Amino acid sequence: MLQRTARRRCVYNPRVSGPPPLSVLFVSLVSNTQTIESVRDIVKSAGVRLSPALTEAEVSDYERKHGIRLPSDYRAFVMHVGNGTVGSSSRGLCTLGIVPSDFDRPAPNVSKVFPFTNAWIWEDGHASTEGTAQDVNCGVLILGTDGCGQYWALVVNGPEFGNVWMLAYVGITPTDPRMTFLQWYGLWITGKRDWWG
User: Fold this and answer.
1) Within 10 A of 117 (CB to CB), how many other CB atoms are there?
2) pLDDT in tens, 71-102
3) Which end of the chain has fewer CB atoms < 10 Å from its terminal CB, N or C?
4) Cis link prior to 177 (omega < 30° from 0)?
5) CATH homologous superfamily of 7-190
6) Residue 147 to residue 190: CA distance in whole angstroms
7) Are 21 and 11 in contact (CB under 8 A)?
8) Distances from the Cα of 82 to the Cαs of 11, 21, 36, 77, 92, in angstroms?
């Protein structure tokens, strides 16, 4: 059984529910900064196959080309765990700098700043005081899709650096509470899609 604390973190109670689910293990792993090997084990336990990891030189070349530094947890993941999901799956992770085939916007420009810090639902006809519709594709890496025009993005340039946002055809929003790549991915691969608190 997962219980919520006042800070909306998952707490595992072994007396109630037996062995902890993978999502709890992953959150614990991220919180306790366990080894990369532990992350690999959890990904493997979830049945997810990843493409080979990138080298330090490949990641550094990408960063240099775009004038950015990747968030440390994502950088470590693509260098030591894997760079995107092999094949197609509901838990598919995009490779570094590649967008899903159904991405219906211009490819993100990671060199420009993602200026948003607040959700923006343009479908309601409201304008944002933080940026324009064109800015939505700036400063983010697309991580994956939930289908129906909904894409997960990691902010790599801007005030929300290191946080995961949902980009959809109706608007944009950060997770609630804010999540880093590893926090988000731990929920993504285990199927516990609790993005909104």
Assistant:
1) 13
2) 999 999 999 999 998 865 555 899 999 998 88
3) C
4) yes
5) SMI1/KNR4-like (3.40.1580.10)
6) 18
7) no
8) 28, 22, 11, 6, 12
Domain residue spans in the chain? 7-190
* Chain centroid offset of residue 107 CA: 17
Encode pLDDT of 56-77 as tens digits: 999 999 999 999 999 999 999 9
End-to-end CA distance of the chain: 16
Closest listed residue to residue 119, CA positions, set 128, 110, 107: 128
* pLDDT, tens only, 170-179: 999 999 999 9
Name the percent of the chain in helix, strand, coil, to the closest 5: 30, 20, 50
CA distances from 156 to 2, 46, 108 (A): 31, 27, 11
The 8 Å CB, 24+ separation contacts for 27-33 are 27/183, 27/186, 29/182, 29/186, 30/73, 30/180, 30/182, 30/183, 30/186
- Please return the burial class of 113, using the count of CB atoms within 10 Å of its CB with bins 0-12, 13-18 and 19+: middle
- Residue 161 has a CB neighbour count (10 Å cut-off) of 16
Residue 194: both structure tokens together: 């609790």
Tell me the CA distances in angstroms from 137 to 6, 146, 156, 157, 170, one per residue in order. 34, 17, 11, 11, 14
